[in-house]
């Protein structure tokens, strides 16, 4: 598509991308004075001590003391170079193992990504791990023999498994699968504003192609990843907005964000460097969609167990910030999907708008979706904040009560009511399987947890856990702007801090369990194969198809005709035995529904809900709304 072409990094720009060796000269230039460093460190301490919701959980799980480390950092400011200050502050936040809560470096780091021009991914062969090149830019790599499908065996002289594990320990993933996934990803791509600058100027790689061993040296290159940064001569520009998060709409939904900034930036950069974002097999049947490129993809796929729909959701953070348009487009696409089953694929989705994630679940289940609740840590600061910001007021009373009860956390309250996240109801009546990986984070963690907690269908993981990011995130600047007179002041020279403000608790069988660190364990595990990486996830989709084939597709289609005081419903059903009809919340009729079409008449009302049963099991539902005169 033309939009994709516009976002690709051209070969001419790639050739001009400066080397990391050249960029290092900028890092020696001092960007923050001692006074400005003190401001950043003091504000970081305020975030951790006053509003950071996971502080007690992180101290207990990882044996860390971020408050003391920040005090020591402030004491030693005069002894540290510019790079040492940034590195230590980054390490303090990385050790929290919370990708929401981080220090975003100022210029010259902001807007820069280091790349070696390829992506490596892990697969399994006979129970043994392998690391393959899944995407490559020959103009950046410079070695024509290093092609897609090459197996990496050594990295800077170390066996690749050892190199990935060492890199993973430097990352802030909340569980071992998440750390390993992020360590692997950052072997080849690093956003310098939120990840540490590579120690080496180049990487020495040993790899195998067709049984032949090769070695090559690849330099780290620097590309711009934020279109707010004005490129200088010699910079390669991948046009990406790396973090505009202010929604143009108003209300709670526009303000509740849960997103891993690192994953979102790298996701967009992958599109710029390696578009299209993934390589599918055998000319898949795409269903055209009306959303901006890179948000979602809909198609049909044929597996060993039948033909199913495949809906890939790359993000819940819409570039145009139109989460309602995003949901409306998914509703349209679901009507075009095969009825026998749907593979809902959220791998690599770093989150975004919580409302989009929570409202989406209703389309796939006849049950009333229970939104997940959120809670503050109880401090004097969160008590004041929940007074200052009107839409946080529901939490204020319980924070105040903590003075007497000593409770660590406030009451857990959903951001959205059941009516708000069930306003449309079930639209897709076939079975659904959710595919996750360890890069799923934040709002996507919330979606995966809700999918499992509301018993919508099985979760099929390609790794043993999701990223386990269980909170909404605020920028430090949000606290400054939304809390006039509060303890937070502006940061100097483009530096940014982000913090987990309210944590998520699960519902259903996992009720009360925090999502942070624990994540969502899949119901089924599929280890990616070489065929998955090189042939469009063929084995993964066969595994998903096998799960779908075990479940029963349903049909509950309704055409409504208002007739004065009555509504005539032409109902077409399959694999249902009876239908219960509710008007404005009250039961009015129960009828048997053999497969096929029949007419049901109910009293007129604003809200009609039909619940289809298979025996005594609620198996399908439809919700209809009417404007009353």
Search tags:
single chain, 629 residues, alpha+beta, Pdz3 Domain, 2-enoyl-CoA Hydratase, Chain A, domain 1, Immunoglobulin-like, seven-stranded mixed β-sheet, five-stranded antiparallel β-sheet, 20 helices, 31 strands, 29% helix, 27% strand, disordered N terminus
Q: List low-pLDDT spans.
A: 1-6, 227-250, 277-282
CATH superfamily annotation of the domain at 254-371 and 415-470 and 515-549: 2-enoyl-CoA Hydratase, Chain A, domain 1
Q: Reading side by side through the largest sheet, how are the strands ordered?
A: 13-14-15-16-20-21-24
Mean pLDDT: 89
The 3D shape can be described as globular
Number of distinct helices: 20
| Main beta sheet strand tally, sense and closure | 7 strands, mixed
Radius of gyration: 26 Å
Q: State which percent range the strand residues make up.
A: 25-35%
Word description of this protein:
By secondary structure, the chain is of the alpha+beta class. Among the domains are: 2-22 and 112-224, Pdz3 Domain (Roll), CATH 2.30.42.10; 254-371 and 415-470 and 515-549, 2-enoyl-CoA Hydratase, Chain A, domain 1 (Alpha-Beta Complex), CATH 3.90.226.10; 555-625, Immunoglobulins (Immunoglobulin-like, Sandwich). It contains 20 helices and 31 strands. It has a seven-stranded mixed β-sheet with strand order 13-14-15-16-20-21-24. Strands 1, 18, 19, 22 and 23 form a five-stranded antiparallel β-sheet that branches. α6 (66-75) packs antiparallel against α7.
């Amino acid at each position: 598509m033309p939009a994709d072409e516009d976002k690709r990094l051209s070969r001419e720009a790639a050739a001009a991308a400066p080397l990391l060796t050249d960029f290092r000269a900028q890092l020696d230039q001092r960007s923050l004075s001692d006074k400005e460093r003190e401001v950043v460190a003091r504000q970081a301490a305020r975030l951790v001590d006053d509003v950071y919701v996971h502080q007690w959980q992180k101290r207990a799980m990882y044996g860390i003391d971020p408050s003391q480390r920040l005090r020591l950092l402030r004491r030693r400011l005069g002894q540290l170079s510019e790079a040492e200050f940034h590195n230590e502050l980054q390490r303090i936040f990385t050790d929290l193992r919370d990708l929401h809560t981080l220090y975003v470096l100022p210029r010259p780091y902001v807007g820069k990504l280091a790349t070696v021009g390829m992506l490596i991914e892990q697969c399994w062969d006979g129970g043994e791990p392998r690391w393959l090149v899944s995407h490559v830019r020959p103009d950046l790599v410079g070695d024509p023999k290093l092609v897609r499908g090459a197996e990496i065996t050594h990295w800077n002289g170390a066996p690749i498994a050892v190199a990935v594990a060492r890199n993973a320990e430097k990352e802030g993933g909340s569980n071992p699968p998440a750390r390993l996934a992020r360590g692997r990803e950052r072997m080849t791509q690093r956003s310098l504003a939120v990840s540490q600058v590579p120690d080496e100027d180049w990487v020495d790689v040993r790899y195998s192609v067709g049984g032949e061993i090769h070695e090559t040296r690849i330099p780290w290159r620097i590309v711009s990843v934020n279109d707010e940064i004005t490129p200088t001569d010699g910079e390669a520009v991948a046009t990406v907005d790396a973090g505009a998060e202010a929604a143009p709409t108003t209300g709670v939904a526009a303000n509740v964000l849960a997103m891993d900034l690192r994953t979102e930036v790298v996701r967009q950069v992958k599109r710029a460097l390696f578009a299209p974002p993934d390589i599918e097999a055998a000319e898949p049947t795409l269903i055209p969609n009306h959303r901006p490129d890179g948000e979602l993809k809909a198609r049909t796929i044929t597996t060993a167990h039948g033909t199913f729909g495949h809906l890939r959701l790359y993000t819940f953070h819409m570039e145009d910030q139109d989460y309602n348009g995003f949901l409306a487009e998914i509703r349209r696409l679901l009507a075009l999907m095969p009825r026998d089953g749907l593979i809902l694929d959220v791998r690599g989705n770093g989150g975004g708008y919580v409302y989009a994630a929570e409202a989406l679940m209703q389309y796939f289940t006849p049950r009333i979706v229970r939104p997940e609740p959120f809670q503050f840590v109880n401090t004097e600061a969160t008590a004041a904040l929940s007074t200052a910001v009107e839409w946080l007021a529901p939490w204020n009373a319980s924070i105040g009560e903590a003075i007497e009860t000593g409770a660590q956390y406030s009451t857990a309250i959903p951001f959205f009511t059941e009516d708000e996240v069930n306003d449309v109801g079930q639209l897709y009546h076939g079975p659904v399987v959710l595919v996750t990986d360890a890069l799923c984070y934040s709002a996507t963690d919330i979606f995966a947890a809700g999918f499992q907690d509301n018993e919508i269908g099985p979760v099929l993981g390609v790794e043993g856990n999701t990223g386990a990011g269980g909170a909404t995130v605020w920028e430090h600047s949000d606290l400054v702007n939304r809390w006039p007179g509060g303890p937070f002041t502006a940061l100097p020279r483009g530096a940014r801090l982000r913090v987990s403000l309210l944590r998520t608790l699960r519902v259903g069988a996992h009720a009360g369990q925090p999502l942070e660190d624990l994540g969502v364990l899949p119901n089924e595990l599929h280890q990616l194969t070489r065929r998955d990486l090189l042939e469009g996830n063929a084995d993964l989709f066969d595994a998903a198809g096998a799960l779908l084939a075990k479940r029963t597709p349903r049909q509950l289609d309704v055409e409504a005709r208002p007739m004065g005081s009555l509504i005539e419903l032409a109902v077409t059903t399959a694999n249902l035995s009876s239908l219960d009809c509710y008007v404005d919340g009250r039961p009015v009729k129960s009828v048997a529904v053999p497969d096929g079409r029949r007419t049901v008449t109910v009293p007129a009302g604003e809200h009609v809900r039909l619940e289809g049963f298979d025996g005594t099991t609620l198996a399908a539902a439809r919700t209809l709304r009417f404007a009353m005169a």
